[in-house]
Amino acid sequence: MTVALIDYGAGNLRSVANALAAAGADTVAITADPERIARADRIVLPGVGAFGACMSGLLAANGVVEAMAEAVALRGRPFLGVCVGMQLLADRGIELGDHKGLGWIPGTVRPIAPGPALRVPHMGWNDVHAATPHPLLVPGEAYFLHSFAFDAADPAQVLARTDHGGAITAAVGRDTIVGVQFHPEKSQAYGLAFLSRFLEWRP
């Protein structure tokens, strides 16, 4: 099994690749080659940084968005977005401006509003609560680091939530697409178990 880990200048690629290998991936190809992406068995889109900058970097990687869409829409390949990679699935992100996303999961990424007892960014370990039954998401504790949250248009596409001054989306998904706000590669046993389920998933 080959996992295409998308290289567009916006992710901690090596740690994600190591976690995928530890979870059982045969081959992890860190790549921006549209042909390799389109033919991969699994696709993982990482992301660290601001929504607009990450989306610009993804669009600048010639043919990558089209290859991802071909793999997912035409070939039915399982797709995982991590952190900002999950946020890019939205229609738009409101961070340092208003930026268009991939539009694969309808919704808007909005800033988490700070409060007297609410620290932003949301950083550290927090519980993951399943919201919609899905084979990849189980209750547990994962590592989060983000200041913006995915406001999904369809509650049925929210697979899990966490609590940080109220409910925050921890995972979204539909069909063969899943996105998680937490970092599996930093979530120790919970994260490796999640990645193992993703590698074994047959949607």
Biggest sheet record: 9 strands, mixed
Strand order of the largest sheet: 2-1-3-4-13-12-11-8-9
Q: Which CATH top level class fits? A: Alpha Beta
- Radius of gyration over all CA atoms, rounded: 15 Å
Per CATH, which architecture?
3-Layer(aba) Sandwich
Query: Helix share of residues?
Result: 25-40%
Structure description:
The chain has 203 residues and is an alpha/beta fold. The protein has a single domain, classed as Class I glutamine amidotransferase (GATase) domain (Rossmann fold), CATH 3.40.50. The chain contains six helices and 13 strands. A nine-stranded mixed sheet has the order 2-1-3-4-13-12-11-8-9, sandwiched between helices. Helix 1 links the parallel strand 1 and strand 2. It is globular and about 50 Å long. It starts with a strand and ends with a helix. The relative contact order is 0.17. The model has no long low-confidence stretch (mean pLDDT 96). Keywords: Amino-acid biosynthesis, Cytoplasm, Glutamine amidotransferase, Histidine biosynthesis, Hydrolase, Lyase. Pathway: Amino-acid biosynthesis; L-histidine biosynthesis; L-histidine from 5-phospho-alpha-D-ribose 1-diphosphate: step 5/9. It is found in: Cytoplasm.
